[in-house]
Amino acid sequence: MSPTATETMKSNLGEAGSHLKDAATHTGDAIKGAASAAGEELRLGKAHLKHDLADTALSGIAAAEQAGAAAKEQMDVIVDKSRDLLDSASDLVRERPLTAFAAAFAAGFVIAKVARGSSDK
Predict the structure, then answer these.
(1) Residue 100: exposed, middle, or buried by beta-carbon count in 10 A (0-12, 13-18, 19+)?
(2) How many whole angstroms separate alpha carbon 112 and alpha carbon 23?
(3) Cβ distance 66 to 74 under 8 Å?
(4) Rounded to an integer, what distance in angstroms lies between the CA atom of residue 112 and that of residue 108?
């Protein structure tokens, strides 16, 4: 005897249920695998971030340590230029003492006028 339509339908529904159960199992496995991979990627990303931030801090500390030396270098340059300017002024005074005296007198006169003018107000 051949199976009835009801028996065939039940068989097909049972097979569909079995396939649905397999699909749910595979989906769960895929989600677990994706979550595990995502967690591993997050851990790896966190490790890279910590490493990069540590490198940044070390570079910043090294730059700060060199700031004092750089400031000293700049100060030395300014002091050298000041000495050169003072030497140049001294040479000018030795070469032309009257001109230097006249320029100093004129500068003092102008400063006195400006100072007196601002105190009158």
Answers:
(1) middle
(2) 99
(3) no
(4) 6
Q: Which residues of the chain have pLDDT under 70?
A: 118-121
Q: What sign results for the dihedral spanned by CA atoms 89, 94, 96, 101?
A: positive
Q: What's the confidence (pLDDT) of residue 118?
A: 63
Torsion of CA 66, 76, 104, 99, to 10 degrees: -140
**Centroid of chain to Cα 40:** 28
CA gap 87, 94 in Å, rounded: 10
**If you count DSSP H runs as helices and E runs as strands, how many of each does the chain have, helices first?**
2, 0
Residues 11 and 3 sit within 8 Å (Cβ to Cβ): yes
Q: Give the angle subtended at the CA of 64 by the CAs of 61 and 66, to the nearest 5°.
A: 115
DSSP code string of 36-47: HHHHHHHHHHHH
pTM beyond cutoff 0.70: no
Residue 57 CB neighbour total at 10 angstroms: 10
The angle that helices 97-120 and 5-95 make with each other, rounded to 10 degrees, is 120
